[in-house]
């Protein structure tokens, strides 16, 4: 009975435990129906779990139909031309949700036999990818999040302006910026549906890009991936490729005029990506036709690494800056993206940005907006415009009299139309402290509650600052039995982070040359007579002295330092010393007296080296020290005062030095 009770208890606990498991592992369920040759898709997804304080969570969708077609709609429709079974995939992104993206599970699609002619619904629209007017374009289903997968659609076409009925060539994708030490992406799989074949990019690296025609109208476009397109001058493919560590290349043939083809790329994010959250990474697409009359193109897509899926984001380009070359004239570029996820259009959008005290608000310059509007100062009544309102530590970018559709608004099928952004540049007041620069934004649609974005953080690269050290050491004691009590000269160098404003580590390496020490071992009075060169001498005095000359190499593997201000710094650490030259000499000094034949006495001195011993790398010791520096302690010259204690010999000494950090 007891055994049966134990089994039932175990089963009950296991069942209860299974019930509280998070539902992140539940895959997206694909449902479909086919009628009159038209296949309609729906899905079943796990319930969303709202992040505390965030807007209502929602899903965005990316459907891959398995025949080269795709859609970003919630419940899309599609017409399959063939009858063979294929696999459809759904990638759902959970916005404002605290869980993981629902896993994707391919669904076999079987088209029933039918003789009726497909009748496309009147409200259906084919996805439009080529919004920039070029031959290639990229679009992602979401921003890259560590631990989540990401899909990218690589579209290429033979537009009518090319003037070619058929086109052969090569397309390539460049990713994993060399700006980052770690790879951010792994291309797990590429699905091609038009017999594209893998190729080699190396033979094409010396191919030059031709400039895009200058008469093209200006385009402003914001999407989930915030892509950006530019080609202002001739650029060699090799120059473009050297900025990336990874690439994939495909060969295409028989691309008909106005035909559009798509590659579907499944990217996995690496664990190292987490270190660069909020950084902006690039992926570049390349289009190289065989026909030299057709322009070669590239397309840049910028993606922000995120910690959660949120369409309202603040982005700082170049989040890692070189402090050595940063001054008051350096410009930083910020971009705030927003999306109206409501059920109706927004006529006013107020983007309030917190401005760090290191910035000069008078230098703010709006560079791009979506919707594209003019400044309200030059707008007529009720014209769409943007107004900049500056506060003490904030600035408001207010879009007025615009029409920004809501994502849940009836009749809105293009998620891109519900998005907007404002991009601006700003300069520093003066050279800032080497500390993180943090900014954030609050977005208000009409009179709704504000939506707060992430914090865009700019950081300075550590950089290295070499330095030179010249010093002079003097003892507290005068006991010459220990050479450490001798005066010494120091010369060497240091290595530390460049211009630190907080605690930092510093390493040092230098030579110390100690003044020769003399230790009188014994001294005796008048002694016996002796003969030197057959001349009789009387020994008046004999001194036995030990001389020592030492040169050491000193290594400070690490010391902790802190710059209290621009002019005062302090530090403490350990010093490892090694005697690289140690010379010990035993000397006998005689004071002699001799008497001539006429009885005159003459005194003389005689020095005799009784013993001499030279040693190299003979002795090592560890000392501890603390010091203070005065001067330009971050970068430049300063003077230091260092107290050292040697526990091996119980020796205390002091050193003063001059250092210059570069």
From TrEMBL:
Pfam families for the chain: DUF7619, DUF7849
Domain PKD, chain residue ranges per copy: 52-95
Region (Disordered): 97-123
UniProt keyword annotations, A-Z: Signal
InterPro entries in the record: DUF7619 (IPR055353), DUF7849 (IPR057171), PKD_dom (IPR000601), PKD_dom_sf (IPR035986)
PROSITE patterns for this protein: PKD (PS50093)
Domain of life where this protein originates: Bacteria
Signal peptide annotation: 1-18
KW Signal (keyword) present: yes
Protein name, entry field: PKD domain-containing protein
Biological source species: Pedobacter frigiditerrae
